[in-house]
Amino acid sequence: MIMSNYNDIGIDSSLDWPRIRKLFIIGLIGGIMTFVGDWLLGYGVYDESLTGLEKKLSQYLILSDGTLFWSAFLGLIGISLEGLCYFGIYRLIASGSMKHAHIFRSGVFGYMLFAACGVHVPCLSTVFFYSHMMLASPENAYDLTIKFGLYFLLPALTLFLIFFLVMSAAQISAFAKGLTPYPKWCWIFSMPVGMGATMLLKFAGNHAVVNGLTAAWISIGNIWMFGGLLLTMKKAKGGHKHEI
User: Fold this and answer.
1) Which of 226, 206, 224, 184 is nearest to 89 (CA)?
2) In the chain, how many domains are there?
3) Is residue 11 part of a domain?
4) What is the rounded average pLDDT of the residues 76-85?
5) Which of 123, 132, 196, 207 has the greatest number of beta carbons closer than 10 A?
6) Within a domain: residue 239?
7) pTM, rounded to two decimals
8) In this predicted model, what pLDDT tens digit does every residue of 118-129 receive, in sequence order?
9) How many CB atoms sit inside 10 A of residue 9's CB?
10) Contacts 24+ apart (CB under 8 A), 101-105
11) What count of other Cβ atoms lies within 10 Å of the Cβ of residue 142?
12) Is the pLDDT of residue 150 over 80?
């Protein structure tokens, strides 16, 4: 019996390119769904008379409950699809480095646990809370919203960030070292690159389109990653190396 040196969770020993391509397409669709949800939340302008987090929260006061629901729902489904489809990247990494694959997969599990239900939906819950507190008790709305976020959002957000950094570092390292079938330069098709480029738009100022795009920075990172890996897949099929 041939034993694998890593827990392959039922994935074939040989690379199944049609399956990987399908995962990337589904992941791209999930990224687009999440982008729409983030856009619904972020499209708008801040109240320039305010400062700090209160200024940021001011743009959400005009959003309807229905908008908040669809933003939360689309992100819930889209982020879940993204997380499942990271296993296409896991297979690419596992073909060349079992060590990197283990680390990447650990990050994926954390992402799936915390990204949608731990971070995205609680973010929308916090916005919903602030919006209705401003109607019921505007003098207490900001302080109570901060407390709400610290209690019910920050713990999961912290865990999410740890797993996200682990996942991203393992992916970038594996690609940059040539441990996948892709050219080394394809490390640029990772979430941090797309996210970082999107956040540069912040320098453009307080505009509805800019705020909508920067609110969607993580989903844009996913679209950049899955889209880039799909477009360059033909360059990747020439072969791959195995870590000794």
Assistant:
1) 226
2) 1
3) no
4) 98
5) 123
6) no
7) 0.92
8) 999 999 999 999
9) 8
10) 101/6, 101/170, 101/174, 102/6, 103/166, 103/169, 103/170, 104/166, 104/167, 104/170, 104/171, 104/174
11) 17
12) yes
d(CA 50, CA 65): 23
* Closest-CA residue to 42 (of 222, 224, 217, 223): 217
Sequence-distant (≥ 6) Cβ neighbours of residue 30 within 8 angstroms = 77, 78, 79, 80, 81, 82, 85, 222
Residue 198, pLDDT above cutoff 80? yes
217 touches 198 (CB < 8 A): yes
> What is residue 14's predicted lDDT score, i.e. its pLDDT?
78
Under 8 Å between Cβ of 46 and 2 = no
For 50, list phi and psi in degrees, rounded to 5.
-100, 170
pLDDT at 129: 97
Q: Are 96 and 174 in contact (CB under 8 A)?
A: yes
Tokens of 74: 């689309």
Flag whether 107 is in a domain: yes
State the residue range of the domain holding 179. Answer: 17-233
92 within a domain of the structure (yes/no): yes
Q: What span, in angstroms and rounded, lies between the C-alpha atoms of 75 and 32?
A: 10
pLDDT of residue 148 exceeding 60? yes
Cβ–Cβ < 8 Å for 120, 75 = yes
At 101, list the tokens: 């694959």
Cβ(177)–Cβ(189) under 8 Å?
no
